[in-house]
Write a structure and sequence with these properties.
The complex is a heterodimer of chains A (323) and B (255). Chain A is of the alpha/beta class and 323 residues long. Chain A has helices at 19-35, 49-57, 74-86, 100-113, 217-221, 225-235, 243-247, 278-284, 313-322; strands at 5-11, 38-44, 62-66, 91-97, 117-121, 123-127, 130-137, 142-148, 154-158, 175-178, 191-198, 211-215, 238-241, 268-272, 289-294, 307-310. In chain A, strand 2 (38-44), helix 2 and strand 3 (62-66) form a beta-alpha-beta unit. Chain A is elongated, with a radius of gyration of 22 Å. Chain B has helices at 15-18, 32-43, 63-72, 91-104, 125-133, 187-195, 203-206, 241-254; strands at 4-10, 12-14, 28-30, 50-57, 76-80, 110-113, 137-147, 151-158, 161-168, 171-175, 199-201, 220-227, 235-237. In chain B, the strands form two sheets. Chain B has a nine-stranded mixed β-sheet, sandwiched between helices. Chain B has a two-stranded antiparallel ribbon with strand order 2-3. The chains are: A alpha/beta (323), B alpha/beta (255).
């Protein structure tokens, strides 16, 4: 295929109904509109017709897939992906999820093919005909816009929930292509997994919530968490927390929002008792409406909100519960 | 057991970035993720005979970081520095420089890295080094459980589980966590360390060509950087707590 293409690479570790991959496909689809790129989704693993149709519906023009059927080490997967990418003559961009798998494969390919990699992107856009990759840096206090130089194409890993899914188009279709996997001698048996213990199976699903309440130190200090949870339940909101709150063990790790936690894009985010450090705000910047309740008129968070409320969160929450 | 060489790659960070609220006497401190990796590596000296070598890429001022490493118990330190050739290196160029330096050292069993640096935050250099040296790479390491001449046993995170992994040498590992707490290094050890020689290698000693390092060898560059976008049309909500609560409920219901 000679057309210019955007590729999204994913594995079947989590099923394709996991929003993450569909978010990336949506993102690729949005980008392709501007320049008429073809969107190629490359999948490693067990992929069925339903998965493929799902991918078409969210914007894939082509789905290339390969199911090794045996457990292969990540290093073999790199070779498979490179072979599939090699069949595309005019790649402009390759996107990976920022998972452990995605990071590893992206980094390997970046080094093999000598192309630039931008990791943990919170946005990708086109400016002056080039792709620009936005990521945080300097301990999340700034957003750096990065471009590649002297590369045939660019690679990036994208954080989860920085881009919402497009609406699903059931009428969309595309072309699929299966790649056979030829088993080569696995010379990486020098790494053996002796034991696997599943941990933290509890994953508070923040990603799909339309309304999210954020818990900051102010709530902990005023002992208002139980009250906040009741109000959240009443209005169907999910509960997220800043890093200091998570480190106290008050909320689960999977509820952490911010640079080292999750990025979320709810319709509305209400921050209660949060001062607004940039490391937290970077996780909520894609919320459509941001409200903050804080007793400190000068709190940093008020620079990032649509509605500023200088008040005691405890008092406001009590009212919300009673109304 | 034979004496094994363990190489720890560290990055110097401006102390203002690591300790923004404190005035410290040093210009540079060790990247907190690398500090944890180094501390965990030095613990191995209690259970096996090893020669710990620190490789550090940075400005000449980063020497003070390496002096601290010597005071902590590191056996040998090497500073990779070249103001002209190395400046502006992205992760691709940095991994090239570090790898070339590693190839100049005698054989090693283990290479240890931190998860990422707190300024660049990419976490990509460790993969680059492993790829260039054709080594397996185990990341998100939580703890080293056992070590002998041929292999290492460790615990590492992988997506949603903790794996106990046995890996043969040579291999590269990267620890997951960071620490801001450095062991108290005695003034005596520091004084002794300050007298020791710190090897400095630049582009000539490493024999890399200019186009593979610094800005020239980088495959990405920062076009611009902006502070997190601030909102312009903020509505300041006034009124009684009942009014405010009603407004919040209204906002929730209309979304």
């Amino acid at each position: 295929m000679e057309d210019e293409s955007i590729c999204i690479v994913c594995d079947a570790y989590k099923s394709f109904t996991d929003d993450y991959i569909l978010q990336l496909v949506s993102m690729g689809s949005e980008l392709s509109i501007q320049k008429k790129y073809k969107v190629v989704v490359i999948c490693i693993g067990n992929v069925d017709e339903q998965d493929i149709n799902l991918l078409y519906g969210y914007g894939a023009d082509y789905v290339y897939f390969c199911n090794p059927k045996v457990l292969v080490h990540n290093t073999e997967i790199v070779v498979i992906v490179e072979n599939m990418l090699g069949t595309l003559k005019n790649i402009k961009l390759v996107m990976f999820p920022s998972t452990i798998w995605g990071e590893y494969v992206a980094a390997s390919i970046s080094n093999h093919l000598d192309v630039g990699l931008t990791a943990d992107c919170i946005d990708v856009f086109i400016e002056n005909n080039k792709f620009v990759y936005a990521r945080t840096a300097l301990n999340s206090s700034i957003v750096a816009n990065i471009v590649t130089k002297d590369c045939k194409f660019g690679i990036c890993t994208i954080k989860k929930n920085v881009f919402g899914k497009k609406p699903y188009d059931r009428n969309r279709t595309g072309t699929k292509k299966m790649f056979e996997y030829t088993y080569s001698k696995n010379n990486f048996n020098e790494v053996k997994v002796l034991e696997k213990v599943f941990c933290n199976q509890f994953d508070y699903n923040l990603g799909s919530s339309k309304i999210v309440f954020g818990v900051g130190r102010g709530i902990i200090q005023s002992k208002s968490l139980a009250l906040l949870k009741k109000v959240a339940e009443k209005y169907g909101a999910s509960v997220a927390g800043t890093r200091p709150v998570i480190e106290c063990g008050i909320l689960d790790e999977s509820q952490q929002v911010g640079q080292s936690g999750k990025s979320i894009n709810p319709n509305i985010y209400i921050a209660f008792g949060i001062s607004g450090a940039s490391q937290h705000m970077i996780g909520v910047k894609n919320a459509k409406t941001i409200v903050a309740v804080n007793t400190d008129d000068n709190a940093n968070i008020f620079e990032y909100v649509d509605y500023k409320i200088v008040a005691d969160a405890n008092v406001i929450l009590k009212q919300m519960l009673e109304l | 057991m034979m004496m094994m060489n363990i190489i720890v790659c560290i990055k110097p960070i401006r102390s203002k970035l690591v300790y923004p609220d404190v005035n410290r006497s040093e210009n540079f401190v060790i990247n907190p993720y690398d500090l944890l990796a180094l501390q965990e590596t030095l613990k191995l000296k209690k259970v096996c005979e090893c020669n710990v070598i620190c490789l550090c890429m940075g400005e000449l001022g980063a020497r003070e970081v390496l002096v601290k490493c010597l005071a902590m118990g590191v056996d040998q330190v090497i500073l990779l520095s070249d103001n002209v050739a190395f400046a502006g290196s992205d992760t691709v160029a940095t991994s090239k420089i570090l790898t070339t330096a590693i190839e100049h050292l005698p054989s090693y069993s283990l290479i240890v890295c931190g998860a990422k640096s707190i300024d660049g935050e990419t976490g990509q250099v460790k993969y680059g080094i492993a790829e260039r040296l054709n080594l397996n790479c185990i990341v998100n390491v939580e703890e080293i459980l056992d070590i002998n001449d041929d292999e290492i046993v460790l615990k590492s995170f992988n997506e949603d589980c903790i794996e106990t992994v046995n890996a043969k040498f040579p291999i590269l590992i990267a620890f997951k966590r960071f620490t801001m707490v450095n062991e108290l290094v005695s003034i005596l050890k520091l004084k002794q360390a300050q007298k020791k020689e710190i090897t400095i290698w630049g582009i000539n000693e490493l024999g890399i060509i200019k186009s593979q390092c610094g800005l020239l060898g980088s495959k990405t560059e920062v076009k611009s950087s902006i502070s997190l976008a601030k909102k312009n049309n903020c509505v300041s909500v006034e009124g009684s707590s009942s009014d405010i609560a009603k407004l919040l409920i209204k906002i929730i219901n209309t979304k």
